[in-house]
Each structure stands twice: as structure tokens, then as C-alpha cells.
Amino acid sequence: MKKLALIFTLLASCTSWAQGDVEAGKAKAATCAACHGADGKGITGQYPNLAGQHPRYLEKQLKEFKLAMTTGGEQGRNDPVMGGMAMPLSEQDMADLAAYFNSLPAIEGTTTESSIEIGQQLYRVGDADRGIAACTACHGPRGNGTSLSGFPDISGQPAEYIKKQLTMFREGQRSNDMNAMMRSVAAKLSDKEIDALSQYVGGLH
User: Fold this and answer.
1) DSSP 127
2) What is the DSSP annotation of 70-122?
3) Which of 1, 65, 78, 197 gives the lowest tally of CB atoms within 10 Å of its CB?
4) Strand, helix or coil at 23?
């Protein structure tokens, strides 16, 4: 029943997305380049790579950055910088931006050798004894996620950014994950495991 409820929720949410225009998004993305680069690659490791990311995921994040600003942080995804950037955007603006960044070639990252032993085990298999699901269950063997389900492409993302997000999920500082799935997993990860996963997923592509 839970699986059916999730499927119906996903299908219902698909009807609320605006159709994005790549060219319009390109023009609107000029201000995004200061942090995310002209090619959708974050200028430093603290910023995510947006190039090739699923448009529905990008759109969802923009909506939730704005929601956090309009609800005083009680809902959505809190980030003072992105909240300020998202505030003036209409739903069409968000759809256009999402379409544009999705159209850019995805960024390829690297996996550090020292992260493979722990990172690969957790990513591919998880830890049944601790109730940790394998990351591949949602993000796929190559870290590409899926657009329809709302799971983001995490391959090629900077280790610094992934580490920050996993830590925020673990500490409850980020809570816009579907059915608290990321919070449930991250809550059981140690600092060492978060470090390993953060460095491991960069080379998945």
C-alpha cells in the first residue's frame, strides 16, 4: 500500500510542472553564473553542478527555496542566498531555468581511491544490519537518479557539496527530502562514512 501511495503521489505531482523553454532559461541564467558557472559547473566545491541535472528536481528545489523564504523557514529548503535568488522567480522562470541547465552537458567528476572501500560498499549495498538502504536503490548504479521519481543525478557533484548536504540531512537542517528518505539514511552515517560517500559519488557517470 505504501508503494502504491508513493506512485500515486508521484503521478499527481507530475501534472503541476510548467513546460520550460531552454532559450528563455539561458537568458534568465545570467545571474546564476556567479556561483554555478556559465557552463553549469559550480565555481567552487561548495556549489552544486547544475549542468545535466533533471529539470523537475531543479524546479522543485527553486520552489522550495522560495517557500522557505515565504514561510519564515518553517517549510521548504532553507538557504539565505538561494532563497533570495528564488523569491522573484515565477513558476515559468523556474521551469525555464531548469530546462536550460538540464540541456547543458553533465559534468564528470572523480572518485578518490581512498573512498572506494567504504563508499562503494554503502553506495552499492548499504548496511542491512543498521537499516541503511543502498544509495543505488534511488540514485542508480551510475548516480544518475531518475527524473520522474524526483531523485537527483548526484554523479560528478563536488565532494564538499555532497558532504554538506548529507550532514544537513543528518542533523535535520535540511528536510525537503521525499518521505524523509535522505534523513533516515544520513542519520545512521558517521562522519567517516559521509566523507567516503561524498568523495565516491563524484566519479559515478
Assistant:
1) B
2) HTTTSSS---HHHHHHHTT--HHHHHHHHHHHHHSPPPP----GGGHHHHHHH
3) 1
4) helix
Q: Within 10 A of 94 (CB to CB), how many other CB atoms are there? A: 25
pTM given for the model = 0.90
The pLDDT mean for the chain works out to 92
Crossing angle of helices 159-171 and 191-200, rounded to 10°: 140
Tens-place pLDDT, residues 135-154: 999 999 999 999 988 999 99
Cα angle at 53 between 44 and 158, to 5 degrees? 30
| Calpha distance 183→168 (Å, rounded) | 9
> Closest Cα partner for 159 from 42, 36, 40?
42
Max alpha carbon distance in the chain (Å)? 50
Instruction: Report DSSP letters for 154-191, one per residue.
Output: -TT--HHHHHHHHHHHHHTS---SGGGHHHHHHTT--H
